[in-house]
Structure to design on (225 residues):
């Protein structure tokens, strides 16, 4: 449901309240997610391959390999603002199914719209949101997904998260997994070696049609002797 922003002052107060609430909820969410993913580890099976697509998401230093709590909050605020702008645009909100996901200021748009013009309009609508560093528009022109298809995507999301969490030496909780209509989008701050490991781990999930990497690449940490 869109935020009720009758003026800049009201919007600022609302966002401050959201930030305080998000900080508290985030730690609880991570604990619940960890337990859920461990219980799903037994579901890991697959045989056919998926097409892999790479999307450059910028570069970060090794010291910035993980988001700070402040950045996590900013990402939540970016998502809220993006969805609010989309909901307030009558042309975009009618007959569309748009999700906005932000990771370290990189904003991903996925879902379905009615025309190529509306896809471009979505980019223009979210452009200029504070703290957004890049916009990756992967909206598809076509009918919105059914309830059954959304349920299948949710199941695939949970399954893929479990696969990544099961990979030794990777912090799966730092990887954002989004599945829309059997297309997997991967976000996070990783080295290129870690990205390759993640893709290799999930590429044989037979239900996936394609894997799109929206990673932000960091430099590997230097080992000291």
């Amino acid at each position: 449901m869109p935020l009720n922003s009758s003026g800049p002052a009201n919007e600022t107060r609302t966002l401050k309240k959201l930030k305080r609430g998000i900080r508290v909820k985030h730690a609880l969410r991570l604990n619940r997610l960890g337990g859920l993913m461990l219980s799903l580890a037994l579901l890991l099976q697959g045989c056919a391959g998926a097409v892999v697509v790479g999307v450059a998401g910028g570069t970060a230093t090794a010291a910035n390999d993980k988001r700070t709590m402040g950045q996590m909050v900013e990402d939540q605020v970016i998502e809220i603002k993006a969805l609010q702008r989309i909901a307030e645009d009558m042309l975009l909100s009618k007959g569309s199914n748009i999700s906005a996901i932000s990771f370290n200021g990189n904003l991903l748009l996925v879902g379905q719209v009615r025309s190529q013009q509306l896809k471009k309009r979505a980019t223009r609508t979210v452009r200029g949101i504070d703290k957004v560093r890049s916009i990756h528009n992967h909206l598809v022109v076509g009918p919105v997904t059914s309830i059954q298809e959304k349920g299948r995507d949710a199941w695939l999301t949970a399954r893929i998260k479990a696969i990544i969490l099961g990979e030794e030496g990777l912090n799966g909780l730092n990887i954002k997994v989004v599945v829309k209509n059997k297309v997997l989008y991967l976000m996070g701050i990783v080295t290129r070696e870690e990205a390759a490991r993640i893709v290799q781990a999930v590429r044989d999930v037979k239900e996936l049609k394609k894997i799109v990497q929206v990673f932000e690449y960091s430099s590997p940490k230097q080992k000291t002797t």
Strands lie at 51-54, 59-60, 97-103, 106-113, 134-141, 176-180, 183-190, 210-218. DSSP finds six helices and eight strands in the chain. The first helix runs from residue 8 to 39.
